[in-house]
Amino acid sequence: MPDWVQRYWEDVREGDELPTLEFPITIARLVIAAAANRDFWPLHHSSEFARASGAADMYANNIFLQGMWERSVREYIGLAGVLKKLGPFRMRGFNVVGETVVVKGVVRRTWQSEGENFVELELRSENSRGVLTVAPGPVIATLPSRASAPFRP
Amino acid sequence: MTDGEWPAEWQPMIDAVGQDFGGGIVYVAADDVEKALVRRYLEPLEFDCPLHYDEEVARQYGYRGIVAPYSGMSTWIADAKWKPGTVAFTSAERGALPPNAGLGRYPMPGDPEPPRLPRPPTEYSFVTETEVDYVRAVIVGDRLSQTGCRLLSCIPKETRVGRGAFVTTEVEIHNQRGELVARMRQQLYCYNPHQKAAQ
Fold this sequence. Notes:
The complex is a heterodimer of chains A (about 150) and B (about 200).
Chain A: E1 17-24, H1 27-37, H2 47-52, H3 62-77, E2 82-90, E3 100-113, E4 116-126, E5 132-142
Antiparallel strand pairs in A: 1-3, 2-5, 3-4, 4-5
Chain B: H1 11-15, E1 27-28, H2 35-42, H3 55-60, H4 73-76, E2 124-134, E3 145-158, E4 162-174, E5 180-193, H5 194-197
Antiparallel strand pairs in B: 1-3, 2-5, 3-4, 4-5
């Protein structure tokens, strides 16, 4: 569970790594994800359908995978951080049942513009075997600055 | 059709790049963004962020209420799986699907028809790339609507799973106040698996 200690823009350095997150993919988790995100396309809960489509097995949909990135980013930028842009979020391989999706991230750049304090994070997802499944892609967010008015609360 | 000719089927789509196929239609989400839906969205992610479940915390951070996770934009705008006056489940065949199993639109008689994308039929598709500009947060209680469907690109390609094309479109999402919430670009790979493509 994150401690939600707020990170400030001045604390961030290019090259800083985000904590790695792991998401074991089981049938139950895929079904719970489908029920939550409303994507019941059977590629994401039917092995039979997924295999007929050319995939190795049922696999996580893009909303679930985006959510993994959002959790990683949120735990880094804290409650006062604001998401500004995702992507391109490019899927390079299927995140199939029985694998663990491993989400990693690194700070690529920081800048200030029009009174806001930006960070660009580069995230990636890999499977249990270290194979890239979601390409390294950017997420842009803002952070509070120690130099400006304190964020609420 | 010979092996080298299949990409020509996609030429009408390539020629249509830049056109908007939204037809001026406003698609309103089936539901308000509800607290329970947001809570359930967090479950498979084990996403323990109080902005998404604690209204007091969300307000302390300047939001109107509980914030819906940004990654769920396609969920918050989703249409129904069934609507009164219709029958969605018409077959006991094991793999039979209702009209809107994924995250498309549920067709209703009399609904305005958007212009059809000039694409050849394909058996499967999946999302390959998403890009979203988040303009403002989605808050529990919001009712989102979607407009536009601008065709940004169409790239025929044979891949490991079949023959088809990468098709990218852009939509805009607004809240019930008419405020722009997000611009979302999504690329789908629309394809026929190799066995079918060869027939």
